[in-house]
């Protein structure tokens, strides 16, 4: 299953039902009743209802074929409790780990329908649909654009080792799947029992990246809600959410005995179905840092799984608008029954639509979220803000302290502050070289294909375990983090103190003490695949050279011009911006105001000509 085009919707929620065009049940929209979210799976007649402090499951009664259903509290689901082995618990919302296993004790595996392995389990969309509902409370809509079943042969190696399976799946996604089918995130749901108690695993803060935007989920429960919650948990890690641990003081509107919140470190019965205040803060911090640059772009509606339907919230072929089901639509510009615009309305949706009319060209519709992001502007011809664009990979950022990568600016100093608090800074280069040449849990360049710690070559030392100085007495990232101090003697008799960290995430997991991908490791170089590589591999300088010194290169390899210069090459006067982002408004003035100024200047010029003509006549007559 491909979870793609995860779109942030700021003005409304949607209520779609997961199994095709069957008639949906009445729905009470969340913006009117914020405590109620409901999923009904028409094909299997399964249902899920989440109230403010209790959840219910709807299932068909096996003894009856007349549509009789059971409805029971989710806390009565029969699953043994367990814990999540992901020990990276943060007090800082910007902290990051490489990956996270979500653990629980599951006793049975059921037949399901969708993306699978040699065991030929089939995953039903029930799991996807329920996960989609969880995220609506965060103004995120998950659009399913692909569904794939492996019932003959696995397309990537799948084993009981979750760490190996995750990395094999992510490698296959990058090399094969991503080139065939554009998408933002991919999740593998498997019937294979992973070693130990691991039931899911996903990289942290990896949404939208080609290398790590995905995860694996084991179908561990008789009830589809179990795998759905696990998928929501792993997606949460992709988004940058960390665990809800006691020291973080997270607010959860559901008590622990009723399931708690989705990012809790442990799971069992009842299943959690809501996100905590910490998860929302983590998500906001991730977006501000540049995570999820692809989420602002609308999905290609022709490839959405489930077929076209008026009322599904997506404007498809033959529709002028789509505000969801009749019961939930509050859009004054759209007719929910016919999916057509009302009266004199020109538009109904989008950040460039206001009061059913298009906003003027040059109106900013999306601000820059960080030093590697670029703003977008309304074009005056579309109701939607242009797709999100950001600086080309390899572009200098933070006063040349870092380089942009996937829309983020990563630096050693930033990571030291995340691990050790304010006052922390990177240690001298000799610390990285000495410590990371060991190839042990305390100094390494990650793990090799056999799962052993890899030694860092001298040129790659700054891409291994982060080495810092200063800051707090102990790591500030959580209770499982320990300090690793190394004293290195110098020739003059002095010593250098190097401070590293180790966070236990289980034997199959790397820890957040590793330098992040995209971090600057030298002049003109950054960390890629645990190696210090030249940023010239991205071609950023060649791209910027065509912008005439009056603009920068964006991730689409197009020039983003300064305010008074025109794309595509910033060599002619114009309104700035790029062919991707729309025109920049000149000096804070709208196009109408600019034209008024031009008219005034023309009239002044004509008046001056008239006066000059009159003066000449008076002089020579």
UniProtKB/TrEMBL annotation:
The keyword Cell cycle does not apply. Pfam families: ADAM_CR, Disintegrin, Reprolysin. Keywords: Disulfide bond, EGF-like domain, Membrane, Metal-binding, Transmembrane, Transmembrane helix, Zinc. One of its GO terms (molecular function) is metal ion binding. It is found in: Membrane. Residues 307-393 form the Disintegrin domain. Residues 128-299 form the Peptidase M12B domain. Disulfide bonds join 365-385, 543-553, 561-570. One of its GO terms (cellular component) is membrane. It is a single-pass membrane protein. Zn(2+) binds at residues 233, 237, 243. The active site is at 234. Its main location: membrane. Residues 539-571 form the EGF-like domain. GO terms for biological process: proteolysis. InterPro entries: ADAM_Cys-rich, Disintegrin_CS, Disintegrin_dom, Disintegrin_dom_sf, EGF, MetalloPept_cat_dom_sf, Peptidase_M12B, Reprolysin_adamalysin. This is Disintegrin and metalloproteinase domain-containing protein 12-like. It comes from Gouania willdenowi.
